[in-house]
Amino acid sequence: MKLKLVPEQTSFDFFSRWKLWLGISGFMIVLALISFGVRGLNYGIDFRGGTTIRIESTQPVDVGAYRDALAPLGLGDIVISEVFDPTFGPDENVAMIRIQAQEGEEAATADLTRKVEKALKSVSPDLRIVSVESVGPKVSGELIQTAIIAVLLSIAAVLVYIWLRFEWQFAVGAVLALVHDVTLTIGIFSEIQLKFDLAIIAALLTIVGYSLNDTVVVFDRVRENLRKYKQKPLKEVLNLSINETLSRTLMTSVTTLIALVSLYLLGGDVIRGFVFAMIWGVIVGTYSSIFVASAILLWLGVKRDWSKPSNTAGNQFANVDA
Amino acid sequence: MLQIDLWKRVLIWLICAAGILLALPNAFYTRVEQANDARAALEVGQDSPELRARAAQWPEWLPSGLVNLGLDLRGGAHLLAEVRVADVFEARMESFWPEVRDALRPERAVIGTIRLLPSEKPDELRVRIGNPDGMDRAIQVVRGLARPVQSLTAAGANDIDVRAEGDTLVITLTEAEKQAVTDRTVRQALEIIRRRIDEVGTREPTIQRQGTDRILIQVPGIGSAAELKEIIGTTARLTFNPVVSRTTNPNVRAGAGQKVLPAMDEEGVYYVIQAAPVVTGEDLVDAQPSFDQNGRPAVTFRFDTSGARRFGDYTRDNIGSPFAIVLDDEVISAPVIQSHIPGGSGIITGRFTIEESTNLAVLLRAGALPAGLNFLEERTIGPELGQDSIEAGKIATVVAFVAVLVFMVLSYGLFGIFANVSLALNIALIFGLLSLIGATLTLPGIAGIVLTVGMAVDANVLIYERIREELRTAKGPARAIELGYEKALSAILDANITTLITAVILFAMGSGPVRGFAITLGLGIVTSVFTAIYVTRLLIVMWFDRRRPKTIEV
């Protein structure tokens, strides 16, 4: 007996309420943007400059005592947070300390690290500094710029590729789905104030790649069915294509999620934010390839008559049978 | 029908075998690493039974390439430093002023008085002249001081621009000269930093130039960057200057050609010294940490021949007067010359700790930086944290792998096992490729591998689902398999090429750990397409040839 995520053949009607789905997605995007506008992202030091120090001690973390010990140093804004992780041993207590970029300095000086270590050791003598990361304002500005360019560039590259391989309506659908995924990911990061750093940009780009992967598989089937059923209304063709690929869509999402969840639980706290972004992205991306990308395709309509040569730029590449 | 040429079969198996062979050393990481280190030591001429035993830990005929572990896994320090080139420009213009003054002086009849004005830009000299009518003459004279730029690319260009702003003569460095100076300064700094790090003796440091005036320094395996930074970041300009006077007033006026510098050890004490040094750190040939006659840490040094002569002459002529040992604009000590010191060696005493005297000796041996450094970025990861990350990554990968294997068998039965074989080969191929190209594995890189484990089965899933569909339309099993592969291909390629595009962009734009992620993701895509299209297919064809089943179940 084999495990089946969906029955052999399905005929769900995904598009009876397609305007509603698009509306919900649009509403979610607006919510994400509002959250981004109101709360803003909790930028890590990669993007705002400053220093994070990770400390480890056998004694329980006492955030208040640490704060009091650091206060006389006059370092400005200090955020101390305890880190919990199932992979830690019983007397492994970890905390992260974030110190704002110091006036007139780029990265942290050796002096700063030493002062902080000394101050904290007065609270728990066996404390050790296990990592120090410090980014100056100059570099963080450049990093933001590069990150934005990377995300935009990847979306643009994808737009061009899909346009060449399919038609422009497909490209618009796919790219709007990507924008949807990226916006919602940024939205959840601003809503729950998770640390947003360079690794999250990498996660965003992976989400772009994954969501696209999903969308392209659906679109590929749509293209095939459009040629096969020349008379069927577009809505039915889309529905059929999604139903046909549904089993694959869910299988791949499930295997990817299995891998990601094990990484989330067991991979340690250092990359947890990164993995969280990807888990979220896989879920949102799977949703968007059906309810955003395809719905937009339905909305825009597709040229149906494939018998005549077309002058749209895509055609010569679209017929290359990979 | 289901046919794969023999040469293709052989090639596929060869690629898989090569992948496994190349990946193999990583399974015995410590052992291979020790063997490699020992072999490298033997090659440079060291020899001991212990080394030979270590080298023999890994057979020589096996590949010994390892995946480099990134700093976030091995622990170590990553520093991005900016060379303060503007300092060099400033020094350059400062030293140019006497030249300009001497050239203009004979022309005073035409141009009137000359006076140096303060300038806001470091690479600029502003000189006001008393008689603006003489400006043309002044410009002509100063232009005569211009020299050609010393660089290969800017042949023919001059080093200075001279122009007039009202009654002020403005002398600036040309772009070509600035470029040449920047280039020279950064290269010198790079060399000095490399020497200093080599002196400290850590393994496999990466020291590279980035952009025009930045230097990236990565030193694996060290626990604290603080010390490293002190060693790299100190300019270490050592000079021996005649002392004019000692004072406790920091605002004391220094005469022409004199400087006021604070004492390093005594708070509130200042020395007025002659700015022109008798000898400098560049005249040193050796420096070693040692102890003075009272048993306190000190540094002994030795001058080269010309330095020794100047030092000897100076001490002979100035017995009884103090001279200052100045390090980076602080007076370490100002001993009184007791006697003629002819041998060219001496000792620097001060209130050093043993560590400080050791560091100072290292710095003096390696030479002074041509300009100061600003650290723009620092990332230090302790080796234990790196080890924890490796452990966590390993466990997560294994769990993810096993979970996906089980899930695939549950879903596709026998065909799931085929997919699993190719998934295992896929991981071997990723590690094989990583070792082959000497790529660096980072923590996000491990995440990339785990993600690949999840996504790699995608191509197989696409094919299997397609075969299921084709079976439904009641073609024979062989035909269904063939059609399944044929029709899934365009979806597989489109889907993976788009992901590959994002991986390439990540690689191009990212740095460090993020780039490590892009590498494993990109390689994972390539290998997963290969294993799905070729390896799984070969397995299925081989099974099919042997069994000739009437019906198949996917």
List keywords for this structure.
heterodimer, A: 322 residues, alpha+beta, Multidrug efflux transporter AcrB transmembrane fold, Alpha-Beta Plaits, 2 domains, 4-stranded antiparallel sheet, two-stranded parallel sheet, 10 helices, 61% helix, elongated, B: 554 residues, Gyrase A, domain 2, 6-stranded antiparallel sheet, 19 strands, protein transport (chain B), transmembrane helix (chain B), translocation (chain B)
Q: How does this structure look, described?
A:
Chain B: One of its GO terms (molecular function) is protein-transporting ATPase activity. Chain B: Its main location: membrane. Chain B: It is found in: Cell membrane. Chain B: InterPro entries: Acrflvin-R, SecD, SecD/SecF_arch_bac, SecD_1st, SecD_SecF_C, SecD_SecF_C_bact, SecDF_P1_head. The complex is a heterodimer of chains A (about 325) and B (about 550). Chain A is an alpha+beta fold and about 325 residues long. Chain A folds into 2 domains: about 20-45 and about 140-300, Up-down Bundle (Multidrug efflux transporter AcrB transmembrane fold); about 50-135, Alpha-Beta Plaits (2-Layer Sandwich), CATH 3.30.70.2040. Chain A has helices at about 20-40, 45-50, 65-70, 110-120, 135-165, 170-190, 200-230, 235-265, 270-300, 315-320, and strands at about 40-45, 50-55, 80-85, 95-100, 130-135, 195. In chain A, helix 6 packs antiparallel against helix 7 (about 200-230). Chain A is elongated, with a radius of gyration of 25 Å. Chain B is of the alpha+beta class and about 550 residues long. In chain B, strands 9, 10, 11, 12, 15 and 16 form a 6-stranded antiparallel β-sheet that branches. Chain B has a 4-stranded antiparallel β-sheet with strand order 7-8-2-18. In chain B, helix 8 (about 175-200) packs across helix 11 and helix 15 (about 475-510) runs antiparallel to helix 16. Chains A and B meet through helix 4, strand 5, helix 5, helix 7 and helix 8 of A and strand 2, helix 9, strand 18, helix 12 and helix 14 of B. Strand 5 of chain A pairs antiparallel with strand 18 (about 375-380) of chain B, so a sheet runs across the interface.
